[in-house]
């Protein structure tokens, strides 16, 4: 007599089906995804408009203005000049706001809300480990944020470059807003905002508190980097004659002043040229022989930007590691046991 073989349970009964993570993530954060795509498309279109028709119209108006003869009526399109200036300001502020928008979303919804309402815990019972859950939660938005923010800063840099030498009031490369919106450090800061938001959400699953903390953390990191950036690359020191009314050399200035006959650097009294008798007396009393200017020329722009970008990305990586360790501490060393079907 032969024993009857017990049929194996169906695969679905042996192990719960693993959900499709990408589909689940898109469905969960669809409004944020659509909002991000809309922001990139609209702001990208405005930057193309700024660097194209608006720049051309403003440049033409400045050319008309330069051709004006003294004492004669001057006709030029002043509205085109003002329109370019306004929209340059609007788009620059919008690009600079991207890291804060990312941080606010990440802190309010990426991890904190799911921990608050139990969605994360439910996902962990569906054959998804907490570490895999967090990795996917960070990886997919990081790709979209890197591509989108990189595209925006690239378009801003292109729009700004088309104004150089054509528009008299165009911003210099070292203008605070222009410097930040033109470079890769802003795109890296958006990724840092994502990591900061996720970390705050894991630390305290409260949407409002996590959002406020994420915004504050992103602002703090950016402020520290703004202060540190001029010191990330060796500066150039240029000496110039006191016959000038100010030190020679333009760029991102760290320090300016006077040089004495002994080579000591002292503060500039802001008097003016030595050809003016009262100023000559002041410089003689101070034993000043020249101006000095310690600054970064335009050739230092990319070394500064890329160094700052590398530092921000390193901080982002460190914050991500801290987030995974915090998650492990919250959930324990092992994932929740999977439910096995009874045989």
Automatic annotation (TrEMBL):
It comes from the Bacteria. The chain crosses the membrane at residues 33-52, 87-105, 138-159, 179-200, 212-233, 301-324. Keywords: Membrane, Transmembrane, Transmembrane helix. The keyword Transport does not apply. This is ABC transporter permease. It comes from Streptomyces sp. R08.
